[in-house]
Automatic annotation (TrEMBL):
Keyword Phosphoprotein in record: yes
Protein name: Response regulator receiver domain-containing protein
GO BP term (any one): phosphorelay signal transduction system
PANTHER family: STRESS RESPONSE REGULATOR PROTEIN 1, TWO-COMPONENT RESPONSE REGULATOR
Pfam family, any one: Response_reg
Domain Response regulatory residues, every copy: 3-119
Modified residues (4-aspartylphosphate): D54
Alphabetically ordered keywords of this record: Phosphoprotein
């Protein structure tokens, strides 16, 4: 299965999403904010198949994290999560790498499906 970098500043949401993704057999590496996630992305020994990130976070938000990942030339599909409808528009310039923006609150099945679609799409492009 996939190796996923999960970035979420809310501990309960991060735990919920991690458990949901682990149900599908994914290996999940957690980061509490965008700056920690960016550090993980810069480590050459860590290879991720997908970034799942909240948009609104301290230090570095999900949009800035997506731009930073792109600047590193990391070919990494991204699923963004947000509880704010107006935040969705901020991701429009990242359409090439942001596969989906999922609105909070979401169910276990919602996040699992969004991740599955992003991974399937990335696999289709790589094939």
């Amino acid at each position: 299965m996939a190796r996923i970098l999960l970035t979420e500043d809310d501990d309960s949401v991060r735990t919920f999403v991690r458990r949901a993704l682990e149900l599908d057999g994914h290996a999940v590496i957690e980061a509490g904010d965008g700056a920690d996630a960016f550090d993980a992305l810069q480590h050459m020994d860590l290879k991720f198949d997908l970034l799942v990130s909240d948009i609104v976070m301290p230090e570095m938000d999900g949009i800035a994290l997506a731009h930073a990942a792109r600047a590193l030339s990391i070919d990494l599909p991204i699923v963004l999560m947000t509880g704010y409808a107006d935040q969705r528009e901020q991701a429009e310039d990242l359409a090439a790498i942001v596969h989906e923006v999922i609105s909070k609150p979401f169910s276990l099945d919602d996040i699992r499906r969004a991740v599955g679609r992003a991974l399937d799409h990335a696999a289709g492009i790589a094939a």
